Amino acid sequence: MFSPDYFWRYSRQIVLHDVGVEGQEKLKDGSVAIIGLGGLGSQVAMSLAASGVGHMRLVDFDVVSTPDLHRQLIYSERDVGYAKAEAAANRISNINRDVRVEPRCEYVSEENARDLVGDVDLVIDCTDSFQAKYTINRVCAKLKKPLIFGSAIEYYGNVATFEPWGDVCLECLYPELSDEDYPSCAVAGVLPQCVQVVGSIQSAEAVRYILGSPTLLNTLLFVDLKNYALDRLNIAQNPSCPHRANKPLSTPRVWEPTEVCSRNGRRQLLMVLESKPNVDEVYERWVRLGDAERRGRLAVEVRKPDGVYTYTAAGAILGEVDTRIDAKTAKQIITQLATTASQT
């Protein structure tokens, strides 16, 4: 039975016919993994925390950057440079201290996906990479975890719910797409309100799934905020689904320096270290290279004349350099930093 204070806090949703005391108990006992803490994930996390979902695992390898702030409302200016998982967890704890929040600074891969989702009730995909989405889809199929998919770009977004161990999965809808063939929000842009609407729909669908009445199972909801339109499309089983055919996933070459975006005079690079050295150790090694600073528990930043580089507990080095530095030189710099970070 709820305490009077708990009942009072959630009274406006408990009164809803589809929720009630029994439904609020389900939310309190529910556990979700939110993978990707950008525009969608930050909205989903705040909404589910406010709704009283009891356990939230927050997964992201990245750090907060200034261009994130216009749409990722979970963060503030003081969070810039900090690991998103840590900054988001801190904010969630301030929103609702009753939520058990678990920050996981991880780069999603086939090697760690099972660990990230294996013990939760529901997985919410808020990533911006097709390769990550496919990896999440397949592990959810293996472990029989329901999956709520979301994406947003420009003025448009999609939401769908899958039980991917059944007849229909994400790869039935979007088979064998490549990140290189589609623009990112850094290139195409994204309306802040678009990610907030799409993320709100994902969180509403998560609540409905936990309560036992999902609306978008095997259904794609297309959100058009340019024309204020919503359309629904039933998703059928795809006989050419790569997952059903057991086609191997292509592996992004993030173990090598990879340019992920160049825009507005800045070149952004990513490299993931297989060794995942401790953040404290990397700080001790990088402090000799320049103006190094700890950024919370999960990140360390070093500033050099050619750019800013951040190492996170995910084993990821993120570089932001001036485009006047050519790509080859930028990759050499990040490789040198990786070598220093991995020294024993």
TrEMBL record:
Domain THIF-type NAD/FAD binding fold, first and last residues per copy: 10-242
Family affiliation: Belongs to the HesA/MoeB/ThiF family.
Signal peptide start-end: none
SUPFAM superfamilies xref list: Activating enzymes of the ubiquitin-like proteins (SSF69572)
A Pfam family of this chain: ThiF
PANTHER family reported for this sequence: ADENYLYLTRANSFERASE AND SULFURTRANSFERASE MOCS3 (PTHR10953:SF102), UBIQUITIN-ACTIVATING ENZYME E1 (PTHR10953)
Organism, as annotated: Candidatus Marsarchaeota G2 archaeon BE_D
Molecular functions per Gene Ontology: nucleotidyltransferase activity; thiosulfate-cyanide sulfurtransferase activity; ubiquitin-like modifier activating enzyme activity
Protein name: THIF-type NAD/FAD binding fold domain-containing protein
InterPro entries: ThiF/MoeB/HesA, ThiF_NAD_FAD-bd, Ubiquitin-activating_enz
Top-level taxon of the source organism: Archaea
Coiled coil: none
GO cellular component: cytoplasm
